[in-house]
Amino acid sequence: MTKTSSQGSARSESPLDTALSQLRRAIDQLQLSENDWNTLSTPRRVLEVAVPLRRDDGRVEMYKGYRVQYSTTRGPSKGGVRFHQDIDLDETVALAMLMTWKCALTNLPYGGAKGGVAVNPKTLSLTENERLTRRYTSEILPIIGPERDIPAPDVGTDERNMAWMMDTYSVNAGYSVPGVVTGKPIVLGGSLGRTSATGDGVAIAVREALRMKGIDPHGATVAVQGFGKVGYWAALAMENMGLKVVAVSDVNAGVTGFSNVSSVFEYANAHGSVVGAPGTENISNEELLGLDVDVLVPAALADAITESTAPKIRAKIVVEGANAPTTPAGDEIMNDKGILVVPDILANSGGVIVSYFEWVQDKQNYFWSASEVKENLNSILMRSITEVSERAASQQVTWREAANMIGVGRVAQAHRLRGLYP
Ligand code: NAD
């Protein structure tokens, strides 16, 4: 069903180049105008801030922080906060753009955003992390809010950071504003099922991709790169569906030979890495990508599947848990090999879907059961998967192209209907 995409002419492999070349392709395939390209290729609001941090020993250090509101056309902007030493403005813009198409593809009433601080959170004590999170929040405070822009956890942040963000915003407002962030602890207005939502969604995408390839999920094999909030929960959910998780990895390296995902998780929690889990053998992250498995799930960072790693992939299906894990060159190679690639904006949309449920529950002060969350997640994701697979089949394009066409098309249509002010 897939037809190789030329993916534009970008030679560089930066996430922003990748995102822009995918947007260009969608604009061309949808036969949209240059006016559409001009509006859709430009972020609406970009904020760069200095985030001073007083370390526990009294030193003061400065970090760069960002918040990019790529689009607010379909509703308030929405997107994660990343704490990672390598983030910069270009990557943040790229990730905010992906959030825009993701929210439109899943038909959530949001635009897209992303933010973060260029810091390695592993170098911070708990109190330093709290001070940095609160100062970053206060720097971006004028542009966030439940009706403006709603942050959530991403790489290097978790529900604890969201609690501090919610508290900082609320103290300034003078009353509790739980809806300003999602991914909060349950007792502060978080949603049941949010912690595992992205991984649960990845597992649903894997299940459906296997079904379309005629492979029985029971006993199908899968390798997962990245064992954080997405990778771990995806691995666990896939194991519960009957798949055999044969390898997992983190930033240090990967392991194979474990009996179940939980045993590796317990070891990683206690020792800070999956490497060394009892009864396992080590493999490199690159070897993991080349394992002879049915499904490969990249769930770490951008640019994992490139011109040099894609030729080694032997999986029949790649389901992108991470955002932008594939470069245009890597994508083209996988398409040529006939690999079914379930793109990030579809595969990892479970996180923002349940974040949306959390925001709705906070607005209504009425909280759902875990089974309601799961049922609604499944139904929104299944609707999107069906739309993408049908579009790909009817227009003879890849799933990535189909997903981008749907997402970009919806934002373009919303722009047209709202008109241009003044
Ligand atoms: P996380 O910080 O919880 O985990 C990241 C994992 O990747 C860790 O295990 C880390 O060791 C590993 N890792 C980092 N660099 C690596 C490398 N070079 N090679 C192999 N592994 C490496 O982050 P997360 O929230 O799980 O996010 C992972 C990806 O999923 C990111 O691209 C993120 O944007 C995307 N995503 C996250 C969510 C969410 O709800 N958390 C939702 C959608 C998409």
Short recap of the structure:
By secondary structure, the chain is α/β, with parallel strands linked by helices.
What would you note in describing this structure?
The protein is globular. It has helices at residues 15-29, 34-40, 89-105, 126-140, 159-173, 194-212, 231-240, 261-271, 285-289, 328-336, 344-347, 350-364, 370-395, 399-418; strands at residues 45-54, 60-71, 77-83, 112-117, 149-153, 221-225, 244-249, 254-256, 281-283, 295-298, 317-319, 340-342. The strands form two sheets. A seven-stranded mixed beta sheet has the order 9-8-7-6-10-11-12, with helices on both faces. A five-stranded mixed beta sheet has the order 1-2-4-3-5. The chain has 14 helices and twelve strands. The chain is of the alpha/beta class. Helix content is 45%, strand content 16%. The model is unreliable at 1-12 (pLDDT under 50). It binds nicotinamide-adenine-dinucleotide (NAD). Nicotinamide-adenine-dinucleotide binds next to loops. The site of nicotinamide-adenine-dinucleotide (NAD) has 24 residues, from loops.
